[in-house]
Amino acid sequence: MEELGVFVCGSIFFPACFIIIRYLLYAFFGSRLTDADVHNVTEKCVSSIQAATATVVGLIIAVKCQKDIMMDRHWLTNTYAVFGMPYFSYDTVAMYYTYIHTKPEVQTQPFLHRLQHFAVNSKAMLVHHLLLPLILFPSIIFFRRGLGDFFVGVLYMCEFTIPFISARMILAQLQMKHTWYYIAVGLLMIGSFLVSRVLVFPFLYWRYAVYAGLPLAQVPVHIPLKCNLGCLLILVPQLYWLFLMVRGASKVFYKIYLKSKQH
């Protein structure tokens, strides 16, 4: 029953944040923002709230489970997994409404056509929002048998980069790609992504090596195969997205370089 209460709280919390932020944006900036702007900014703000919450929760867990990284337990580990589970359903609906508001030509179509249009153009995020709760939730709650709260806490902190990604998308939505704010946020996004989504995996292996008294190179053969495969499945798309970010940043700086040469 306690888990059900936490799940209900999560189911209420994220939509409530969306409604409140959207109301405030219309109230204070309604004359300057379009409906597409409001919904896009609102969705990204709620994503940042979820990410900040997960990062803080993960930090608390990791700090409290330092003594024995395999056996130490913290009540927030499973609690936040249950609380955060409804976020993926909420965000799927929020993405749909944001997409519809940014595509005026789709708004007049029948509902099923709008839904199909959204699904076709949002495949990657829909797969992400479907697979993540289906894989990570049972892994955290059931399959790990109460071991490794420290590692779960560190993985929660992978969300650290989301506010920077969201801020960059908001600036793009508000037609501010030409500003230094956009460039600065882009660099922060790449740096935070590198640390929290890529370098975090070597850190976890190193931390286990210290705990078990093993050379780092021997860790992969001493831990279950499913752990190695799980880390690999998560890491590979992160490397691809990091490549896309670095490539995009390179194009921006190359354009700045060309402009400086012209002057």
Write up this protein.
It contains eleven helices and no strands. With 263 residues, the protein is mostly helical. It has one domain. Helix 2 runs antiparallel to helix 3, helix 2 packs antiparallel against helix 7 and helix 2 runs antiparallel to helix 8. The protein starts with a helix and ends with a helix. This is Protein FAM57B. One of its GO terms (cellular component) is membrane. InterPro entries: TLC-dom, TLCD. Pfam families: TRAM_LAG1_CLN8. Its main location: membrane.
List low-pLDDT spans.
none
Give the biggest sheet: none
How would you sum up the global shape?
Answer: globular
Order of helices and strands: HHHHHHHHHHH
Give the termini separation. 68 Å
Alpha-beta classification: mainly alpha
- Strand proportion: under 5%
Condensed summary:
Helices cover 83% and strands 0% of the residues.
Supply the key terms.
11 helices; 83% helix; mainly alpha; 263 residues
Which secondary structure elements does this structure contain, and how are they paired or packed?
Blueprint: H1 2-29, H2 35-64, H3 75-102, H4 104-107, H5 111-121, H6 123-143, H7 149-156, H8 162-173, H9 180-212, H10 219-222, H11 225-262
Helix pairs in contact: 1-2, 1-3, 2-3, 2-7, 2-8, 3-6, 8-9, 9-11
Main location: membrane
GO cellular component, one term: endoplasmic reticulum
Transmembrane segments: 7-29, 49-65, 124-144, 150-171, 180-203, 223-246
